[in-house]
Amino acid sequence: MTSEAPSGTPSQGASAEREASPPILHVDMDAFFASVELLSHPELKGRPVIVGGRSPRSVVTSATYEARAFGVHSAMPVGAALRLCPKAVVLEPHMHLYREYSRQVMALFRDVTPLVEPLSIDEAFLDVSGARRLLGEPDVIAQNLRARVLAQTGLPCSVGVAPTKFMAKLASGRAKPDGMLVIRPSELVAYLRPLPVRALWGVGAKTAEQLERLGLRTVADIADTPLDALVRAVGEATGSKLHELAQGIDTRSVVPASQEKSVGHERTFDIDERSTEVLKRELLHQASRVAVRLRAAGLMGRTVALKLRFSDFTTITRSRTLAEPTDLGRRIYEEAVAIFDAVGLRGEAIRLIGVRVEQLSEADGTMHQPALWADKTVPSEGWREAELTIDRVTARFGTDMVRPASLVRAPKTGETADRNGTRS
Amino acid sequence: MKFQVNRDVFSEAVSFAVKLLPQRTTLPILSGVLIEATDDGLKLSSFDYEVSAQTQIAADIEEPGVILVSGRLLSDIASRLPNAPVRFSTEDSRIVVSCGTARFTLLSMPVEEYPTLPQVGAESGLLPAEQFAAAVSQVAVAASRDDVTPVITGVQLEVSENSISLVATDRYRVAVRNIDWDSNDSGTTTATALVPARTLQEVGKTFGNAGTISVAITNSDDRELIAFKSDKKTVTTLLIKGNFPPVKRLFPESVDNYAVINTADLIEATKRVSLVLEREAALRFTFTIDGVTLEAIGSEQAQASESIDALLTGQDTVVSLKPQFLLDGLSAVHSEFVRISFTKTDNPNKPGPVLITSQSSKDQPGSDDYKYLLQPNLLLR
């Protein structure tokens, strides 16, 4: 870019000849966890690398493209991945590193535009319409951003540039790895039509099944179906949304710094668990962890949800709404246990258990309504003090220095006492 | 069975009998209204094992008999009938209701399967109906609606020699009012009964103009029951089991820090300022010698504040109150002015409760002994 362009000749000369570049960017880090691991293991570059835990039930959380070439993908058991690609190197995940790099990358995004909507730890939407005058056309911005992310962090990313969020995400997916794709408004429909219906935002397995039963397999099929027929098939809300998406219309705007919608913890047991005592202790552990995270983020939640996955992989989620929002582990635990008891397990083996707090709001300014008196139905005011003290101790001495007594167990031989009972 | 009855009398009786039935019953038969035609007239009853209602009205009985018919349907029909005598007759398993040229054929439910209504015990005493209705509306608002803790979903009636006190709480506030009680039984002078708040509210509304209400509390074996009876109407309900928390002792003996405010002014200002509040948020009230200032803060979108006159005795005070909780108390004082008293506390994490009482003028306490205790909010961080 010429820094001394005379006023009156803005850099629109080029775009007058070709179609203007659309303003929405979807930036997706390539194999994020694996790429971050490679920064500390440069010798593994170019080799198949899998990030995943060591436990037999661990799943792949990330894999380099070299590993993906063998059919390895996220969420598959590590064991299965190693059968596909025996030469792969398995590295343990380091969440704190990923969070740190995520923070750095998001900060680079925010240098470009304040309209950054993180979707997860490693991807975000950017609306750069306001940055045109300063930084040039969106495709130029995207190219520069990719270069900057690589220069500053050493991490590759792919960028989709399109008129809508939906298409931008589609484009970044097509650009991977380490690439960029611009979909201009005139090309929109051509890109959309051949896609399977499942590619559309909000079409899950059930909706797709309903649509496919009607012979609607591609986006083109949906675009060509009259709206009222679509509404009859999948209902008012979904029907009209799909119809719009299929025409390339996506009215959702980029919402900066979208708040966390929920905070949760879950655990897959190495061996399916049947003991309610063990399961409830796990709930206590998770509730305490969730509460610590809520307080750290300055959030309170109104809904407590319990997730149970049985050994046959059937999964149930049950939730309850509290009379008032909480950030106390004690309160979350009580509600989770009440839900757990209401499920009425009869010795079924549990593969996964998880606690999640939803309907979050800022704790700042939230009024706490104390009760006039304390009894066993009201968590006494003392709990707040106790848990805030734990936060302070944790801040000074580290996680799990103080925890509920039932979560402390005697150290095994050869194990140091300071970290026992914890899980990450 | 065959009878003829005045439309208005009948409609009123059916609506009374149906009102206390729950929206959904587990047994379809319990959604029925039992109609008994005898030489004495017509008796309408409903019962769902917890609550029963029974009333007697005059009718021309041509042929005595008993029928059971869907309560809600009959009530809907009765309220829309043309202005003419209502005739009932049975044809096979059907019930024919005709009024003018309107004619309804209703399914007859099996009478023999209908449960027997509970026996009403000996009268315990008499209540002045109007006072009782007012007291119920003042107190029941504080009862909990959370079924998780059933004991506080009721209104506790505490009977003493010549007064009865009504108490309700949802943990965040307590409402109490005493009214006159004409005890029938000089032997047992004290008794308590924990009555479901919803039922008591219906009783208050239904019997408000009745003059006096006869009350019978029955504590026999495991069947604890209270009956309210007036004119030709009777309502019974099972009592809630369990011990009501001893909330009366939460009230302070005396408070020397208080403000007196025009009730309507405070209600209006509270409603206005809380328009910008988010759900669950509280209003901040700052009491000084200049009056009281209401502030709605903590919302990014909007703020609001308003000041009104208040006569403060004692020191300046700041409290945060949930607006709906305050409004419930203010609407219940039934007096031109209201006294808001600030109790002291030693716990820095829990402000002292606020006491709301009636005040007939700026310096004259109210005549009734209604009391409403409210726990202020705590502003976190």
TrEMBL record, chain A:
Catalytic activity: DNA(n) + a 2'-deoxyribonucleoside 5'-triphosphate = DNA(n+1) + diphosphate
EC number: 2.7.7.7
Keywords: Cytoplasm, DNA damage, DNA repair, DNA replication, DNA-binding, DNA-directed DNA polymerase, Magnesium, Metal-binding, Mutator protein, Nucleotidyltransferase, Transferase
InterPro entries linked: DNA/RNA_pol_sf, DNA_pol_Y-fam_lit_finger_sf, DNA_pol_Y-fam_little_finger, DNA_polymerase-Y, DNApol_IV, IMS_HHH_1, Rev_trsase/Diguanyl_cyclase, UmuC
One of the record's GO molecular function terms: DNA-directed DNA polymerase activity
Note accompanying the cofactor annotation: Binds 2 magnesium ions per subunit.
Residues where Mg(2+) binds: 28, 122
Protein localization: Cytoplasm
Site location (Substrate discrimination): 33
Residue ranges of domain UmuC in the record: 24-204
Pfam families: IMS (PF00817), IMS_C (PF11799), IMS_HHH_1 (PF21999)
PROSITE patterns per UniProt: UMUC
UniProt cofactor(s): Mg(2+)
Positions annotated as active site in the UniProt record: 123
Function: Poorly processive, error-prone DNA polymerase involved in untargeted mutagenesis. Copies undamaged DNA at stalled replication forks, which arise in vivo from mismatched or misaligned primer ends. These misaligned primers can be extended by PolIV. Exhibits no 3'-5' exonuclease (proofreading) activity. May be involved in translesional synthesis, in conjunction with the beta clamp from PolIII.
HAMAP family, sorted: DNApol_IV
Subunit structure of this chain's protein: Monomer.
Name of this protein: DNA polymerase IV
Native organism taxonomy: Bacteria, Bacillati, Actinomycetota, Actinomycetes, Micrococcales
Automatic annotation (TrEMBL), chain B:
Regions annotated as coiled coil: none
Annotated region described as Disordered, given as residue ranges: 349-369
GO MF term list: DNA-directed DNA polymerase activity
Localization annotation: Cytoplasm
InterPro entries: DNA_clamp_sf, DNA_polIII_beta, DNA_polIII_beta_C, DNA_polIII_beta_cen, DNA_polIII_beta_N
Keyword terms, alphabetized: Cytoplasm, DNA replication, DNA-binding, DNA-directed DNA polymerase, Nucleotidyltransferase, Transferase
Family matches, as SMART domains: POL3Bc (SM00480)
Primary location group: cytoplasm
Ranges where the DNA polymerase III beta sliding clamp central domain occurs: 127-245
Domain (DNA polymerase III beta sliding clamp C-terminal) ranges: 248-348
Pfam name, any one: DNA_pol3_beta_2
Signal peptide residue numbers: none
Chain ranges of the DNA polymerase III beta sliding clamp N-terminal domain: 1-118
Classification via Gene3D superfamilies: DNA Polymerase III, subunit A, domain 2
Subunit record text: Forms a ring-shaped head-to-tail homodimer around DNA.
Function in brief: Confers DNA tethering and processivity to DNA polymerases and other proteins. Acts as a clamp, forming a ring around DNA (a reaction catalyzed by the clamp-loading complex) which diffuses in an ATP-independent manner freely and bidirectionally along dsDNA. Initially characterized for its ability to contact the catalytic subunit of DNA polymerase III (Pol III), a complex, multichain enzyme responsible for most of the replicative synthesis in bacteria; Pol III exhibits 3'-5' exonuclease proofreading activity.
Stated family: Belongs to the beta sliding clamp family.
Protein name: Beta sliding clamp
